């Protein structure tokens, strides 16, 4: 059986755990615990969230959600090895989340041929100017053209959009 890894990365509270839960067609492993400091939410991921999409008997996609806090970045190295695709989640209008994008692009060595997309989350909750303009500027500096979507991680149809986009990116990169 072929196992491909998809990493879900982004700042704390960007929706990684929720998105994996909505994509997985198996029971997910969730490593959220009560946060000991104020991070804007009650629970935080301290391990690795995991789910799967079984395409057929020969292909399984592993959905790996890594903690958003850099102090847990030692877990990112495991996910980085043999990575097939990356989903970067950015909280809308969060300066911290946008700044983290540059670090994540470097850390995960995102190149134009990497199946990768960016999801802007919390657009439904946080009004005001979207983060899309700032994200495009960061990508332009790196000569990267990646799909950018405003998504709601709670909606299964948004999770499916991300999955379909990754498949299309893979097909485009392989010329199929």
From TrEMBL:
Pfam families per UniProt: ATP_bind_1
Keyword presence, Hydrolase: yes
Cross-referenced InterPro entries: Gliding_Motility_GTPase, Gpn, P-loop_NTPase
CDD domains for this protein: Ras_like_GTPase (cd00882)
SUPFAM superfamilies in UniProt: P-loop containing nucleoside triphosphate hydrolases
Keywords, alphabetical: GTP-binding, Hydrolase, Nucleotide-binding
Similarity comment text for this entry: Belongs to the GPN-loop GTPase family.
Protein name as it appears in the record: ATP/GTP-binding protein
Lineage of producing organism: Bacteria, Pseudomonadati, Pseudomonadota, Gammaproteobacteria, Lysobacterales
